[in-house]
Design a protein that fits this description.
globular; Arc Repressor Mutant, subunit A; homodimer; mainly alpha; 12% strand; 5 helices; three-stranded antiparallel sheet
């Protein structure tokens, strides 16, 4: 985690994250294999910093959105923390680059290429 | 497909493959997110050519093995064809490199690094 702000509440608002060395390649690939989750990661990668869950306009229920963010967090792709009532999200780019150099970039590039190809169809 | 040998029988032995432009990133990532399938791809990448299904010693039933190879084929990661009674498999490395440059290499490198790290634990 690169975020350093204090978590605003403990207990039910705990958001467990895998340590860097616990991140498994298979979990990362699985998390990225779902189009909506891949879209979230692309959006976080394109932005400069962190985004709240409500910054994402996903065409699914709130509970499905929460599920997708949890899968990304538990796979080690993103960190999440509460700032007041907002749940903020950021990419764990440094952790992933240290563990799997070039992997995230190549997936993001592949996603860009695929999106461009589909736009041309 | 780079394989050019004739398929030995039609009908029930058809093995449908997606055309290069039909290969979807999400399907590729999903196929690679299962440890046994990732292992099959690593073995095919390490070898020079093609391998028959029975060259792989997987600790699962034959039907599970068949399932994993089918997922890989339908995702566009491998080609499969019959030579006599043997089902042969090869990586669609050129197709993947053309569609998603660097992606397969970065996944294979990540898998190598993870395997090395686990070996040290």
């Amino acid at each position: 985690m690169t975020a350093t702000a204090p978590v605003s509440a403990a207990g039910s608002r705990d958001l467990p994250h895998p340590a860097r060395e616990e991140i498994r390649l298979e979990d990362v690939l699985h998390a990225l294999s779902e189009p909506m989750r891949l879209g979230i990661v692309r959006e976080l990668a394109a932005g400069a910093g962190e985004l709240s869950c409500s910054d994402f306009e996903l065409p699914v229920t709130k509970s499905t959105t929460t599920h997708h963010f949890r899968v990304l967090r538990e796979a080690g792709l993103i960190w999440q923390l509460y700032r007041g009532t907002a749940k903020m999200n950021g990419l764990r780019g440094d952790d992933l680059e240290e563990l799997f150099p070039g992997l995230l970039d190549s997936v993001l590039t592949a996603a860009d290429r695929q999106a461009a190809r589909r736009g041309q169809e």
